[in-house]
Amino acid sequence: MLVAVASDHGGYALKEKVKDYLRQRGDKIVDLGTTSEESVDYPIYGKACAEAVASGKAERGIVCCGTGIGISIAANKVKGIRCGLCTSVEMAELTRKHNNANMLAMGGRTTDPDLAMEIVKAFMDTEFEGGRHKRRTDMLDEM
Ligand code: RB5
Predict the structure, then answer these.
(1) Whose CA is nearest to atom 4 of ligand 1?
(2) Cβ atoms within 10 A of the Cβ of 132, count?
(3) Among 35, 79, 121, 142, which residue has the fewest nearby CB atoms (within 10 Å)?
């Protein structure tokens, strides 16, 4: 799968680990920054990643900031994006099954890196259930 990734400084180390993990799996990556732990503004990176997904340049997006909160808020402002902030494997499975999330957000300062890779695996490998959930995601996409 082609995955766009982005982070601010607080999520930079986790983003780099996500890239290594995705490469190992054979996924393709578009890295939209940032490129170091120098302080930057998370809305810029959340928006860039979300626009790549919304435009179809990437099939999925993964974004990281210190908590995952700010960058997920930024991503969800882009029409067509359903970005789930996940702190457990169960949340990642459910945001795919129920929300058809096309983006995942995680916190580089709040989520253990090994757990984060399990979260990425669940996000990448879990299918949307459709049915009643499709009605609800259609409602989200209309907003
Ligand atoms: C940056 O210090 C921090 O505020 C940011 O990474 C993120 O946690 C915001 O939600």
Answers:
(1) 66
(2) 8
(3) 142
